[in-house]
Amino acid sequence: MKQRNQFLFVLGPHRSGTSLVASALHTLGVNLGDRFIDPNDDNPKGFFEDEEIVRFNDRLLRSLSLSWDSFGFIWEEDFSAKRFKPYHKAAVTMIRDRFSNSSVSGLKDPRFCILLPFWKRVVSEALDVEVSYILGIRSPEQSVRSQRSRHIRDSDFHLLGRRNVQTLLLWWTYLHKALKEVDARHLLIVDYTSLVVAPELELQRLAKLLGFDIPPDEAESFSRQYVDPLLNRSQTPVKAAQRQDSSLWHYAQMLYERLHLLSRNDCIQPEDLQGVIEHIDVPQLEPLYLQELQYLYGYSYKKIISLRHRLIRSNQELGSEREKSGQLQEKCDTLIAQHESLVDQHESLVDQYRLLAREHEVLSQNYQTVLNTKGWRLLVLLRRCVTWPFSR
User: Fold this and answer.
1) Mean pLDDT on 102-107
2) Which CATH number goes with the domain that contains 86?
3) Could you tell me if residue 183 is inside a domain?
4) Which of 163, 159, 164 is nearest to 301 (CA)?
5) What would the mean pLDDT of 268-294 be, rounded to a whole number?
6) 46 phi-psi bin (left φ>0, alpha ψ -120 to 50, beta other)
């Protein structure tokens, strides 16, 4: 019996090591898409995310009035609704174009955690494959600290990160959504710290999931190229933040520890995963979500006002620059007109010069002809020998 092709969803909250997991799959030869997003300071080794797919996910989220940093358990969407059909059709086309000829393929984007119901339907229609899931996890303290560093570097884009509890709520949101949708029988959990500390071992686990045999030198090459201890630079616990909303941090740590235990297993039983999901006490967290949404919306409003003022100043500066540009354009037009006039004068002078040069050439030829006549030569001889009567 022919083995079915495989498709992998690489899942996990932002700043949980999913990029490193994707780099491992890329090393193993998994087709992860067409053109990757360029590396930057956030991920110097690369994101391994298909740029068009990520942009598509952002548009899909905007159609839901959401974004990648929208946290909360309060929304439930029926992606089979009529208004999602154009998105579904476009996504099916993208998947077929990229992966119809690949035996092992997949996509990585943390946004899949909250959009997985949509993409499961897309892949099932586009490809005849067996779908598996790789969930990247990282301790909540490290994820929160890493996101805070992103906020400090670019607070205009990364609104999330100013308050650690909001980042932790997003961490909960992504895990909660993902764990409800994955099939435990086809799930592999990879702990970020384990991948950094023992990359060869974790690479072997991924290869086993795919049915690959990986040479030792390839595992060593992956470690040298992609694994850097400095990648795990957000290790210091955020103790100060944990003093606030300590119950949330307690539950988050318990969730992480349970998932960490499951990350040691190559085969996860559905009842084990169900036990992890049931541990999440959503009703108890909802008031905290609503409170932090108010904080985030208030902060977002302040950022919008600040950006609006910056935009007004920029428009004023742009208007001043446009006025200067208009004056310079007038001067430029004048100089161009003067240049064209001088070019015309130059062409006229060149024509006159050529005419005079031709006349000069004719006179020179005539003069030479006269000098070469016998009469002229005789006259010159007479002037040398006979005194000229008209001379004084």
Assistant:
1) 96
2) 3.40.50
3) yes
4) 159
5) 81
6) left
Q: How confident is the model at residue 166 (pLDDT cuts 50, 70, 90)?
A: confident
Using one digit for the tens of pLDDT, what is the confidence trace for 227-277? Answer: 876 655 555 554 544 445 677 888 889 999 999 999 999 999 999 998 888
- For the sheet containing 5-11, what is the strand order? 104-108, 5-11, 129-137, 187-191
Residue 165 pLDDT > 50:
yes
Mean pLDDT for the stretch of residues 335-348: 90
Task: Quickly count: other Cβ atoms within 10 Å of residue 73's Cβ.
Answer: 17
Alpha-carbon span 37 to 57, nearest angstrom: 14
With tokens 């779908």, the residue in question is 131
Amino acid at site 243: R
**Cβ-based burial of 113 (10 A; exposed 0-12, middle 13-18, buried ≥19):** buried
Q: In 3D, which of 174, 173, 260, 224 has the Cα closest to residue 23?
A: 224
User: Kind of pairing, strands 5-11 and 104-108?
Assistant: parallel
**Within-domain flag for 289:** no
Contacts of 70 (CB under 8 A, 6+ apart): 61, 114, 173
CB 242 within 8 A of CB 249: yes
Q: Is residue 149 part of a domain?
A: yes
Domain count for the chain: 1
Residue 390: inside a domain: no
Say which amino acid occupies 267: C
Cα Rg for the chain, rounded, in angstroms?
Answer: 38
Domain that residue 166 falls in: 5-280
